[in-house]
Prior knowledge:
The protein has seven helices and four strands. By secondary structure, it is an alpha+beta fold. The chain has one domain (about 1-130): Alpha-Beta Plaits (2-Layer Sandwich). The protein starts with a strand and ends in a 16-residue tail after the last helix. The model has no long low-confidence stretch (mean pLDDT about 95). Bound molecules: adenosine-3',5'-cyclic-monophosphate.
Amino acid sequence: METTLILLKPDTVERGLIGEVISRLEQKGLKINGLKMMQLDDAIVTEHYDFLADKPFFPSIKEYMMRTPVVALAVSGQNAIATVRMLTGATNPQEALPGSIRWDFGLTIDGNIIHASDSAETAQTELKRFFKGENIFDYSRGFDGIL
Ligand code: CMP
């Protein structure tokens, strides 16, 4: 069983799409173990997107991610990391497949709706970054073990 980190980005919050995106995750059968709204500051955004620090669009990503609060989620399930990435779609909504979250709700790379961890190692680091080991809840659903 894997757990992954998801951020619902400022455009998702501003456009009233929090519920729509979370529904996609729940409908797939993924379990929500943690959920919190947070206003990101410069330090956490810089750390989170450290690998993009030399890109020309780095300042605009930082501005975007701090524009309004985001919603952080810890989500688990079988093969959750790859499953969430499939649901999410390609980074650029213009290249995402129809039916994916980024295609269905996003239009440009400047507002791509959602962030999802890209590997088990990244998920571990990112979960600690946004949840600090607290507020992640383990609970059973009737169908756990079947899905
Ligand atoms: P995310 O999945 O959070 O991971 C890296 C982020 O960088 C990505 O989503 C986009 O928000 C952003 N990004 C990647 N490439 C570009 C680009 N060419 N122009 C602007 N933003 C980008």
